[in-house]
Design a protein that fits this description.
By secondary structure, the chain is an alpha+beta fold. 40% of the residues lie in helices and 18% in strands.
Length: 290
């Protein structure tokens, strides 16, 4: 039987597989041998260098190197010690005597902060005063009742808030409680109730009945029957923007029935009493009950 060569052409598929396996094994063996050879060469080279270094080493050089290292350590220790001593001797910040040039900026900063705070306080006070002025002159004011002319609706020492803004936009209405100045005295104000409106004729008869344009006015604000009709006994015709007022305590009130007061003009009306703030047990709105 003829022997098959390793690299001979295979006759079938099995022979081809065997041939490939052999070739792979041969390649692996060759690679392994090559790597082992390289490792041996590297080891020999390293041993050779170590031997060379050992032969060239001088004992005197070793001593010199040790001494140099010792000197370096001593130098480092000396420098460290000097640094620590200098740090201890260094003066604190409080010990420095600052010059005027350094103090001036600090003083300026303190002064600036002080004046800024002062300016804010002054501005705040000015704003509060301005708002208070606007409120008291154009919006509302506090009024204290003195006397008994408006009992039982209002009593002595009642504290009221007077609305000064409403009548700038609309006309007063019947039965509104208004505040107006007394014509014959300074800083004296009256507080009364509106009974007659502009263009109307107000008349009061001997029995205390009130007539508006000859028609009896139905109201229940009067504390008792009115005894003195005053100038309204013959009738009072109101002109444009004129109002006829009475106190609720009709027999103890100086009002439009008297020549001292007479009719009240709209431009003289300070405002409308809308709210009672004292006494606390009566606090609240002044509502119309008629």
């Amino acid at each position: 039987m003829k022997q098959k060569n390793m690299y001979e052409e295979p006759e079938d598929l099995n022979d081809l597989n065997e041939l490939l396996e052999k070739k792979i094994k041969d390649d692996k063996n060759r690679t392994k041998k090559s790597n082992d050879e390289k490792k041996r060469m590297v080891k020999k080279s390293a041993v050779f260098r170590e031997d060379e270094s050992a032969d060239d080493l001088d004992p005197n050089d070793t001593f010199k190197n040790n001494k140099t290292a010792q000197n370096d350590n001593e130098t480092i220790n000396k420098r460290t010690k000097n640094h620590i001593e200098k740090k201890k001797e260094r003066p604190k910040e409080d010990d420095f005597d600052f010059t005027e040039e350094k103090r001036i900026p600090q003083n300026h900063a303190k002064s600036a902060r002080f004046f800024l705070a002062l300016f804010k306080i002054i501005l705040y006070i000015v704003i509060i005063c301005g708002l208070t002025y606007l409120v008291l002159h154009y919006v509302a004011q506090r009024t204290i009742v003195e006397g008994s002319s408006m009992e039982t609706t209002l009593t002595n020492h009642d504290n009221l808030v007077v609305d000064k803004l409403t009548y700038r936009f609309k006309n007063p209405k019947r039965f509104d409680i208004i505040v107006f100045p007394y014509q014959h005295g300074k800083k004296v104000y009256y507080i009364k109730r509106i009974i007659g409106l502009p263009g109307e004729t107000v008349k009061i008869d001997a029995t205390g009945n009130i007539y508006i344009n000859d028609k009896e006015l139905e109201e229940s604000y009067g504390m008792e029957v009115m005894k003195d009709p005053g100038i309204a006994a013959n009738g009072v015709t109101l002109g444009k923007n004129e109002y006829f007022v009475l106190g609720d305590n009709r027999n103890d009130s100086t009002d439009s029935r008297s020549d001292k007061v007479g009719v009240v003009k709209k431009e003289d009306i300070i405002g409308k009493a809308v709210f009672r703030i004292y006494p606390l047990n009566k606090i609240g709105l002044l509502k119309k009950h008629n």
